[in-house]
Design goal:
By secondary structure, the protein is α/β, with parallel strands linked by helices. The protein has 9 helices and 13 strands. The chain folds into 3 domains: 113 residues, 2-Layer Sandwich (Nucleotidyltransferase, domain 5); 145 residues, ATPase, nucleotide binding domain (Nucleotidyltransferase, domain 5); 37 residues, no CATH class. Helix 4 packs antiparallel against helix 7 and helix 7 packs across helix 8.
Length: 316
């Protein structure tokens, strides 16, 4: 059977999966909501991906994992490689756009910028502390305005005078939005203003002090919003490239990294039927008072982490 490679990107809002062949062609892909349960999300994701696979001719030889829950999901899938989002997104993007120099990424609850020179990451920054300007921020404002977030971009493009919205903070943005609506700004102008506010917030925080050079590739869930794309192009004065699989680039990068390990295993999608349990243990053996996470497959301990010294080590 021909080898293929599975990449998983498990974020706080969404979970993404990609299976590629040895030429990096996508054989299977899926995007679902994490719903605060990364293990449950992966167990829902895997059967969907298996249905898309030609399992008679392809087998998954190795798994790569990235995202905020990468260590946990790497443990339950027996991943060959577990990498941070910066590396995964850079590898995934360069596989599609070798000349890329700047990567914008805005996800559900965080955002990042990656700068590349001659195929190497030379600088990056992340914003994980504030939701202002992320997908979750746009979704909450869409609900407040009674508009589907998937319609935000098209509506924004109809505006000729975007409303100025203060977006340094979600609370300030919501207050400003309500005020602007009350004094008569139209919904389309407010929506366009929100798209511009996302870009302004991103460039003034994540992109602050960074040398932004084209070609620029924009990815993450928010890259599907044409209003935000237009606002970015206006702000930086350069065209922005958005791939049709822009929401899957992290998972693609994880799959490519799995391929590079040269591991030749036989991953089974059937792990979705296995019970995995996590338990928190508070260690009181020293002043660190570590909270240790233990992962069980049924009754068997398969991994643990969180201890800062050997006194808190929990053995398999």
């Amino acid at each position: 059977m021909t080898k293929s490679f599975l990449g998983l990107d498990i974020g706080s809002i969404s979970t993404k999966g990609v299976v590629i062949d040895e030429e990096n062609n996508i054989l299977s892909s899926e995007y679902i909501w994490t719903k605060g349960d990364p293990i449950g999300a992966v167990k829902r994701l895997l059967p969907i991906m298996e249905q898309q696979m030609d399992t008679e001719n392809y087998r998954v030889a190795a798994v790569g994992v990235t995202g905020s829950a990468r260590k946990l999901i790497g443990t339950i899938t027996g991943a060959a490689v577990v990498k941070n989002e910066i590396t995964a997104h850079a590898i995934g993007t360069m596989s599609l756009y070798p000349e890329v120099r700047t990567i914008f990424e805005i996800g559900g609850q965080d955002s990042k910028i990656i700068l590349i020179e001659n195929g190497f990451v030379v600088d990056y920054a992340m914003n994980t502390l504030c939701a202002a300007g992320t997908g979750a921020f746009l979704s909450s404002q869409a609900e407040r305005l009674g508009v589907g977030v998937e319609d935000f971009g098209d509506i924004a493009l109809t505006s000729e005078k975007p409303t100025r919205i203060a977006a340094r903070c979600t609370v300030f943005a919501e207050s400003d939005l309500i005020h602007k609506a009350q004094i008569g700004h139209t919904k389309k102008d407010i929506i366009a203003g929100l798209c511009r506010a996302v870009v302004t917030n991103y460039l003034n925080n994540v992109g602050k002090g960074k040398k932004i050079s084209p070609p620029i590739v924009f990815q993450g869930g928010v890259s599907k919003n044409v209003g935000v794309i237009k606002a970015f192009e206006d702000a930086v004065g350069s065209p922005i490239t958005v791939d049709e699989n822009s929401h899957l680039i992290g998972a693609l990068g994880a799959a490519i990294l799995a391929e590079k390990t040269k591991v030749d295993g036989d991953f089974k999608f059937g792990i979705a039927e296995i019970d995995f349990i996590t338990r928190g243990v508070e260690c009181a053996k020293c002043a660190n008072n570590c909270e240790i996470i233990c992962v069980y497959r049924g009754d068997e301990l398969i991994d643990s982490w969180g201890n800062k010294c050997e006194k808190g080590a929990i053995r398999k």
